[in-house]
Amino acid sequence: MIHRDQLFGRFSLQKDPLTRKPTKQLILECCRDHRDQNYRRFQTMRFAIEEINNSSALLPNVSLGYEIFDHCSSKDNFPSIFQFITMNKRLQPWYDRTGQSDITAVVGPFSSADMVTIAPLVMLNFVYGAGSSAFSKKVKFPSFLRTVHSNQDLVEVIVNILLFYKWRWVAFLNSDDAYGSDGLDLFMKRITETDICMAYNKVIDYNANASEIITQIETQHVNVVVVFVPEGTAERLIGTITELNITKKVWIAVDAWSLNKKLPKMKGIQTIGTVIGVAQPTVEIPGFNEFIYSTRRPCQRELGELCNQYCRDCEDLTPEDVISSDPSYSFNVYTAVYAIANALHNMLQCESGECQKNKTVYHYQVLTELSKSNFTLLDETIQFDENLDPRFGSYTVVFWNSSGDAETVGFYGFNPSDNFYINTSKIEWHTNGEIPLSICSTECSVGYAKEQEGIHKCCFKCLLCPNGTYIDVKVDEYNCVPCDETEWSTEGSAACLKRTVEFVTFEHAAAIVIVFGTVSLVGLSLLTSVLFALNYNTPVVRSAGGPMCFLILGCLCLSSISVFFYFSIPTVASCLLRFFPFLLFFSVCLACFVVRSFQIVCIFKIAAKYPSLQRWWMKYHGQWLIITLAFVVQATMLIFGYSFSPPAPFSDIEWEQSQIILSCGIDFKANTASVILLLVLCCLCFTFSYMGKDLPKNYNEAKSITFCLLLIAMTWVIFVTQFILYQGKYIHTFNALAVVSSLYSFLLWYFLPKCYIIVFQPQRNTTQYFQGLIQSYTKTMSQ
C-alpha cells in the first residue's frame, strides 16, 4: 500500500527461478496527496528488481523477491513492521544473528520522521533512505545505509547559496519532526562560522498560522526565507502565502519540495517573489518509461485473488502522470536496489557466472559487503564512506521560472575541483533583475570596525579606526588593531605603512654649514691663541685674563667636539659625546669668566674696601681654585649621573606618525645638577660683570662678558622654546646650532675686539694708554 508519505519494502532471495513461489505480494492503496511521486518510486523499485532478475551478469540464477508495505503514519505502521522482523512467521525480539530471517534487506522509507519509528525495530536489517544526520551515527544505527545525502550536505548547499549572494539576514522555517529539527540544528551550527544570522525561526506544521509567520518576517525586515519542511507542509504553507499577496521575498526550497510539480504552476505563485531550490539531480533511467507503459493495469483484482500490481483508488492515474511526476529520489531507490544486489552478488561469489546457491546469507555479512560497495551505475561510481553515507551524487540548484518549471541554474558537487556554481543570469529576480538584498546592517566601509548591536552579529554600527590603527576584515571585523612601532596609519586604514627612519646626515646642507662653522671656530680659536701668545706681555692680553685666555680658548675648542656627534645614526658613544664635552668644558669657560669678572670688580671697587680679601685672593690664587672646583664638581656630577642613566639611542615615534626619528634620549633628572651648576655660573658671571659696567674703557671686559651672556641666554631661550614646540627631525640640528652659537658668543664678542686692537690699533695696546685711563677713572670716582 502507498499512503501519504513513503513506501518501504523488503527483499528475499529465490535461488531457483524455476521453482520459486510468488513473493511479490503487495496492495497499493494510493491516497490523493503525493500519490504520483510515491507511486513512481514504487515502480522504480519494481523496475530495478525486474531488471536485475532478467540480468545474466548480476546474480545469475538467483532472483530477488520483494514485499512492499505502506508506511502510513507513526501509529498505523506497526503491523507491517512486525511482519518485517518475523522469522519463520514468529516474532523473536532476542534475535540471534546466526539465524536466518525471511528478509535480506529493507529499502525506505525516505522520511526521517518515519524512519525514526521503524529503525530501532529493524536494527539487524539494512535500511536505506531518510536525510537526518542522526542516522550517520553508527553507534545508534549500525546497519543504516542510505543512497541520499544527509541533511548536513543539504544544509551545506543552502549556506553556500546564501554566501554566494551575500544574504546575511534570513528566516528559517522548519517542520515539527525529526527532519525539520535536524535541519535547524545543522543550519545553526553551520552559520556560526559565517556572517549569516538567523533573524527568525518558526517550527511549522499543517496548522501553522502563515499570516503570523509573514508578519514576523516583515517586522524583522527579512527578505530571504529558508523553508525546511516536507512536501505536504510546503504545499499548504506556500499556498496560504500566495493568498496573502506576499511579495519581494526569496524562498529557498529544500529537495523535499523543490521539484514539486503543483506549486510552480499555482495561481499567484509569481507574486511571492523568487523561489530557488536545492534538488536531487534528475537521472534518466533507461527503459523506465517503457516499463511504466507496459505495466498499466496488468491485472484485475477478483474475489479471493491477491493481485500484486493493484492500485486501489488509482484508476485515474495514467502512465503519463507517473512519468511526469516529481522524479526526486527515483535514482536513489534505483541505486539502493542495485547496491543490495551487488552485495549479494559478491557474497554468493557470482563472478564466475554462476552463484553458490546453497550458501547461507546472514545480515551482518550483507552489511559488510554493502559498506565495501564499489560499482558503476549509469556512469556514477557507487561507494559509501565510514558512516555508510554516499560518496557519490550531487545537488542541483533550481529556479522556478515564469513558465512554471523548475529550471536548473547551478550545481553543488562533492568533488572539490568543481564544487559549486550558479548561473545568476538565468534567474529572473522579482526585484527588476537586481539581486535582492537581505541584511540587517549595511557593510562598513573600508577602515571601519563593526560594533555589534543586540544579539545578532549581523546587526552592527560602524566605527572609524583612529590614527595608528588598522582593521583587517579578513581576520577581525570588530577590532581596530594597533600598528607596530615601526608602522603608521591614518584614520580609517585597512593596513599599516612602514615608517620612514629620519635623521640628519653629514651630507645634509644644515649639517655641512654647522660643521664648517665649528671647524672655523676651532681655527679662529687657534689663531687667537697664537696672536695672544705673540703679544702675551701687552696690556690688552693681560687685561683680557693673561694665561686664563688660553684656558678659555682651549675649552671652547673642546666644547665644540659635541657638535660633531649630532649627526648620522645615534650610537651609545655618540649620544654620550653629544652632551658630556659641552657640559663639562663650557662650565670651565663660565667659571673662567666668573673669576675674571670678579677680579675686575675687585681691583676697582672691592680692594679699597676689603684689602684683606684681595690679599687672600692673590696669595692663594683664588681664580684657579674656583675654576678647578667648578671643573671637579661638574665632572663628578656628570659621571655620577651618566653612570645611573646614560644617554642612549632613542627612536621617537610620537612626534610624527609616519616617521621614526632617531635621537638620543637623555634623563633630565640625572642631569639636573649639572644644568643647575651652569645656571649658577651664568648668574654669578652676569652679576659680577654688570657691577663693572662703569669701569675704564680698556678694562671694561665686564661689558663684553655681559653682552656675551645675554646672547647665550637668548640662544638657549630660543632653543628651549623650539624644543617645546617642535621635536622633529631637525631638533638636534637646532641643538648643535645653539652649542655653536654659544661658543661663538665668547669668541666673537670677547676675544675678537681685543684681536682687533692688537692688530689694527696698537697705540691703544700700550702701558701709558692704560695708565691714563686708570688715572682718569680714579679722578672721576674721587669727585
From TrEMBL:
GO biological process, one term: sensory perception of taste
Coiled coil regions, renumbered to chain: none
Single annotated GO MF: G protein-coupled receptor activity
Membrane topology summary: Multi-pass membrane protein
Keyword Cell membrane annotated: yes
GO (cellular component) term, any one: plasma membrane
Transmembrane portions of the chain: 509-536, 548-567, 579-604, 624-644, 672-692, 704-725, 731-752
Domain G-protein coupled receptors family 3 profile span(s) in chain numbering: 510-768
Keywords: Cell membrane, G-protein coupled receptor, Glycoprotein, Membrane, Receptor, Signal, Transducer, Transmembrane, Transmembrane helix
Subcellular location: Cell membrane
Family: Belongs to the G-protein coupled receptor 3 family. TAS1R subfamily.
Name of the molecule in the record: G-protein coupled receptors family 3 profile domain-containing protein
Native species: Neogobius melanostomus
Species lineage: Eukaryota, Metazoa, Chordata, Craniata, Vertebrata
